[in-house]
Each structure stands twice: as structure tokens, then as C-alpha cells.
Design brief:
The chain is an alpha+beta fold. Helices cover 18% and strands 39% of the residues. A hairpin with a 2-residue loop joins strand 15 and strand 16.
């Protein structure tokens, strides 16, 4: 009896301890600092039974303090025809560590994992969860088994700023000693332990303090711990592969995923031959064929095939008139091939922060494909999912990054186009009159090139009300602005977008007795000044370069003179350059000129406040006013 009571007491004590482990009050002040969420306990246990057989068991316990921390939880598990979900559940605890909600497999929604895809093999079980209180703790766990081993779950204790980690452990069992290449990032820390051999890989972290979010910082992969694995022998939906370098990897993709999918009907080939019959120059032929593809097709996400990595056949896209990035790229490649023009299916990471494919990590990477067409003078890159984009032009989601060309001879790394400040220029000219009632009226023309063009060409297809509202938002410092006679021209040959419009606005000037305060910089302004930092920990990263040139002719009302003129100002720094001036043209008529250019690069953290000072100076000068006095 005593023994039974002892056991019962021990069980009750253990239960109490277990429940209280998730109390918010048990989190140390040090771990809590700067954190909107805390990973309390994360466990990844993977067994690579063989190159075509893998089991993944995952569990995470995360405490969320506010809405900013919600991004950390993702109660979802992905699967496809090669993967089965053995278990998935979620538990929710309150601040005292008491369980308040429990979700089993039947409570998870079974949905397409590809969002708006027309067709998709990829599915996921996801919990539709909205918290009713903060802080709360969620324990989410799952177990899956798969015959596809191309993607081995990496170790991310956390991939977000402002998230602390109490404990994270990752174990990869490899009993068959299948060749694996671990790629480690930012793990040289006292509180990270690593043990590696060909049969067992173990990584464990404790008490990782939250890093603060810092504007214009590098990607989190450049400073947060991560380990990812490249299997040299793997299977992708029943298609085996054995690769040790990019040449072999590209050759496998070409032979197993692409070969034989570029067949076109003879009638389509004849149509393309007729299209280019009077064009001699190969690049111009490619341009005509690319525009044919754009006019014939539309983009629709179709995530089917081998793990969502194999394109639809060229013949199918030709017949249906739609496809996803893979299908449209493969189709364009087949059209070019019909005229003897070589082109290569090209894998890219399309995130806007411009992430390179990791050249030292030979594995499945990227989330998008496009087409590379090599000519003697340059390699042309074709984005095949945008029916409006110009030939050989890339936007912000594929510019300046390493990509992999899949050639018949194997994979070849290359880099996409980089656009400089001279390329990314917006030139604005305007003629403006301030009338006797202090209403501004005038017209302007703006010509935008490069990535400035990329941000504008889409507006021409919008309804006129949306276009009008766009300009009102863009120049929100004008009160009661009205725009009219809007004329937009998209020159795809020059990659030039031209805007012409008339405008008028009331209440732009400030009046004080017989004096008028007037800011000559009417349009292109920088109005955001980042906060200075006394403890910056990360480098300053400026991803892209831009330049702006404004010339505004200003005519002021009779009976007024410029009492306080805008002084010329010029500033050149390693971050960019700024220049303004205002010169008389005739009586009561002046020319205001503004030039601003930014420079890209990674700058030491110690220079961050210097950058803030540069922006602060520009903002101040952009808002500078002159004084008009009544005669």
C-alpha cells in the first residue's frame, strides 16, 4: 500500500512538474529580453533509412507574447503522393502552463499547399488557429514517412529576429551511411554543441538570445544558426538521383525531368518559322518568339509532376494556352529550339531580397524557373510568367543573383543582370504655376527606366480610378490634389515608362500675413528617417541602387518676390549623392533641380548612424521652403 501511494504521489508530482514546465513565469528575464516569441523546446528526429526511405518526427513548443510573435508558429505539415502523415496534433496552454485546447489530426484542414494552383499534387494539413489571449504556448508535433528524400528538413532553431530559443535539438540517423553533405551557418557559439559522423548527426542549442530586428540588415541566414543537408544519393517521387557536383545535378535534371518534354506539333513549328522568316538577327528572332509566347499564353500555377519540379510538356502548354513558370519556360525553350536557338531552363530563388543559390550546396534549391538564352554579346534572361514584361528585362524578384542553368552537359552557375543607379533612373520634368489664389496648377512628364520602370509598368492596365488614386497617394503631401489628362506609354523596346499628366492642388502653401512659405520640391521626396541605433549588431545592407532627377519650372504670382531663396546644396557620401539648386529664368520664374542617387553595398555596422544622418539631411532639404513676400 505504501509503495502504491508512493507511486501515485510520484506520478502526481511528475504531472504537476510537467504541466508547470510551460508556465510563462518560468522563462528567465534574459531569454525574455527583446523577444516576441520563445522556442521553449524544439525537437527534430530524422531517420534516413535509405536513399529512398525517410521518417521525420518533429515537435516544437513555442510561447507567443503578442501578435508580432504569431509569425513563428506554423501548425502545418506538407505531404504529397510519396509522403504519408502518420501523426499531427497541437496543444495550447495558458500562461500558467495549463492545457486549454487540444487538436487532433481530424481537426486539421486538408488543403492544397500551392495556394492558387489550378492543379497541385502538394497538400498540407493545417490548423486554422486564431489565439483568443496572450501570452499562450502551443505545442505542435507531427510524424511523416516518405520515399522522397531530395529535401531533408534542415535545422533552424529559429529563422526570425526577436525570437529566443531555450532548447533546440536536431538528430539525423543515417544507418546506411548514405553520403550526406552538411552545410553549417553561424554555429560557432558556446551554447551550440555539434557531434557528427557518417551514421549520426546531432546539433543542440540552448539559451539562444533573441536578436533585435534591425532595418536594412542582412538576411537572417547570415546571422542565425542553421544546418542543412545535401544528399548525394536521393529519390524525388520515384526518380532516383546520384550527384556530387552541379554538373551532375544539372545533367540529372535535364535527363530525368526535362528530356522529351520539348516536343511541338509540326503546325506550331511551321507557325514559328513563318513568324521569324524575315528576321535575320538571332536575338531579334528570340524576341519575336518570346512575344509570341506572351501573347498566346497566361500564367496559371500548376504544381503537378515529379514533386512539382517537372514542367508540363510543351505540347500541352501550346494546346491549353497556359502554364506555370516551369511549363511556360519549357514551352518557350521548345519554341526557340524549333528555330535552332539554344536556351536553358534556369533555376532561381525569386525572393525580393535577392538571395543567391548556394553554390557550395549541391541540392534542390530555388522556388522559380526562367529561361537563359546565351548570345555572343550577352546572356538574355526571359521571365516567362509575366505577359507584360519586356524582352531581356528582370524585375526585383530575379535581378542580381546566382542561378543554375540546366544544360544537356550539366548544371552551370551564372548570375542574372545587375541594375545600377544609372540604369534605375526616373527623370521628371514639370511646369507649375502658383496663381493669385495660391492654387498650384501644372503638368509633368516622368520617364522611368530599369527597376524604376519595374515598379510602374503594371499600373497602365489598372482602372482609371485606381490610377488616379495611385498618384494622389504618391504625392500625399499635396492637399486636395486632382489629376487629369493622364497619358501612360509603355515602351517595351527601350524599357521606358512615360507618364504625362496635369494636376492642380489647393492648400499646398503656408501663409503668414503677407508672406508665403513654399517648398519647391513638389514631387520626389524622401520622408522616412530611420531611427539611430546605439547598439547596432548587424551590417547595413542596401540591396539596390536608384537615381532620381527632377527639373521643375516654377512661376509665382505677380506682386510677390522671392524674399528668401533656396541655397544650392550638394552632398556626396559612400551611401549616395544629393544635389539641389534653384535659379532664376525670368521675372517670377525659376528652375528647381534635384538629383538624388543611392549606392548599394554592405557597410559595417559602425556606419549605420552615418547612413541615417545622410537620409536625415536629404529629408530636411527635400522639405526646405522659400519665402515669397508681397511687394
Amino acid at each position: 500500500m505504501k509503495y502504491t501511494l508512493t507511486l501515485a504521489f510520484t506520478a502526481i508530482s511528475y504531472l504537476c512538474i510537467s504541466q508547470s514546465n510551460y508556465k510563462v513565469s518560468h522563462i528567465s528575464e534574459e531569454i525574455r529580453k527583446n523577444a516576441s516569441a520563445i522556442v521553449r523546446d524544439q525537437s527534430t528526429d530524422i531517420t534516413l533509412h535509405d536513399f529512398d526511405d525517410i521518417t521525420i518526427r518533429y515537435s516544437e513548443v513555442i510561447t507567443i507574447f503578442d501578435k508580432n510573435g504569431l509569425k513563428v508558429i506554423n501548425p502545418a505539415v506538407h505531404y504529397d503522393e510519396s509522403t504519408s502523415v502518420k501523426k499531427v496534433e497541437a496543444l495550447v496552454y495558458d500562461r500558467e502552463g495549463e492545457e486549454v485546447e487540444k487538436y487532433k489530426k481530424k481537426d486539421f484542414l486538408d488543403v492544397s499547399a500551392s495556394g492558387g494552383s489550378l492543379y497541385s499534387d502538394d497538400r498540407m494539413k493545417v490548423l486554422d488557429f486564431t489565439p483568443s489571449f496572450y501570452p499562450f504556448t502551443m505545442k505542435f508535433s507531427y510524424e511523416i514517412h516518405s520515399s522522397s528524400t531530395a529535401f531533408i528538413k534542415p535545422w533552424y532553431p529559429s529563422r526570425y529576429s526577436n525570437v529566443s530559443v531555450e532548447k533546440s535539438k536536431y538528430v539525423l540517423h543515417n544507418p546506411k551511411k548514405n553520403p550526406l553533405t552538411p552545410r553549417k551557418f553561424n554555429v560557432e557559439r558556446e551554447n551550440i554543441r555539434i557531434a557528427e559522423n557518417t551514421e549520426l548527426y546531432t546539433y543542440e542549442a540552448t539559451n539562444l538570445l533573441a536578436s533585435r530586428h534591425e532595418v536594412w540588415g542582412p538576411s537572417v541566414t547570415e546571422f542565425l544558426p542553421m544546418v542543412k543537408f545535401a544528399p548525394q544519393k536521393f529519390q524525388l517521387n520515384k526518380i532516383p538521383a546520384e550527384v556530387s557536383n552541379w554538373k551532375e545535378f544539372g545533367n540529372w535534371q535535364h535527363e530525368k525531368l526535362l528530356k522529351g518534354r520539348d516536343v511541338l506539333s509540326q503546325s506550331t513549328k511551321d507557325q514559328i518559322t513563318a513568324l521569324v522568316s524575315n528576321i535575320e538577327e538571332p536575338k531579334e528572332k528570340a524576341k519575336a518568339i518570346y512575344e509570341f509566347m506572351q501573347n498566346k499564353t497566361r500564367y496559371v500555377s500548376v504544381q503537378v509532376g515529379i514533386g512539382g519540379w517537372q514542367p508540363s510538356t510543351a505540347e500541352e502548354v501550346d494546346r491549353l494556352g497556359y502554364g506555370d513558370c516551369k511549363g511556360l519556360t519549357n514551352y518557350t525553350m521548345a519554341l526557340l529550339k524549333s528555330q535552332g536557338i539554344k536556351s536553358y531552363y534556369t533555376i532561381v530563388d525569386s525572393q525580393p531580397d535577392g538571395k543567391d543559390l548556394d553554390e557550395d550546396f549541391v541540392a534542390m534549391q530555388g522556388d522559380h524557373v526562367m529561361l537563359s538564352v546565351p548570345f555572343e554579346d550577352e546572356t538574355v534572361f526571359l521571365e516567362c510568367t509575366d505577359q507584360r514584361i519586356p524582352f531581356n528585362f528582370l524585375g526585383r524578384h530575379t535581378d542580381n543573383r546566382k542561378v543554375l542553368m540546366v544544360t544537356p552537359e550539366g548544371g552551370v552557375m551564372t548570375r542574372t543582370h545587375t541594375y545600377t543607379a544609372k540604369d534605375n533612373v526616373a527623370r521628371l520634368t514639370a511646369s507649375v504655376k502658383l496663381d493669385d489664389s495660391f492654387k498650384l496648377k501644372g503638368g509633368l512628364e516622368r520617364n522611368s527606366f530599369g527597376l524604376q520602370y519595374a515598379g510602374l509598368y503594371g499600373i497602365e492596365s489598372q482602372p482609371m480610378d485606381d490610377i488616379t488614386n495611385y498618384y494622389k497617394r504618391s504625392w500625399g503631401h499635396h492637399n486636395n490634389m486632382n489629376v487629369s489628362n493622364i497619358d501612360l506609354k509603355n515602351d517595351k523596346d527601350l524599357v521606358k515608362f512615360t507618364e504625362n499628366l496635369d494636376f492642380e492642388t489647393e492648400g499646398y502653401v503656408s501663409k503668414a500675413a503677407d508672406r508665403i512659405l513654399f517648398a519647391p520640391n513638389l514631387f520626389t521626396r524622401i520622408d522616412y528617417v530611420p531611427k539611430k541605433s546605439s547598439g547596432r549588431t548587424l551590417p547595413l545592407v542596401v540591396r539596390r541602387e536608384y537615381s532620381y532627377v527632377d527639373e521643375i519650372k516654377l512661376e509665382f504670382p505677380d506682386g510677390y518676390v522671392v524674399d528668401s531663396m533656396l541655397e544650392p546644396f550638394q552632398l556626396e557620401t559612400e551611401f549616395g549623392a544629393y544635389k539641389i539648386s534653384m535659379t532664376p529664368l525670368a521675372e517670377n520664374t525659376y528652375l528647381y533641380k534635384r538629383e538624388f542617387s543611392s549606392k548599394s553595398g554592405s557597410f559595417p555596422k559602425e556606419r549605420y548612424n552615418d547612413y541615417v544622418n545622410f537620409i536625415k539631411t536629404v529629408v530636411k532639404k527635400d522639405k526646405a521652403k522659400i519665402i515669397l513676400s508681397k511687394i
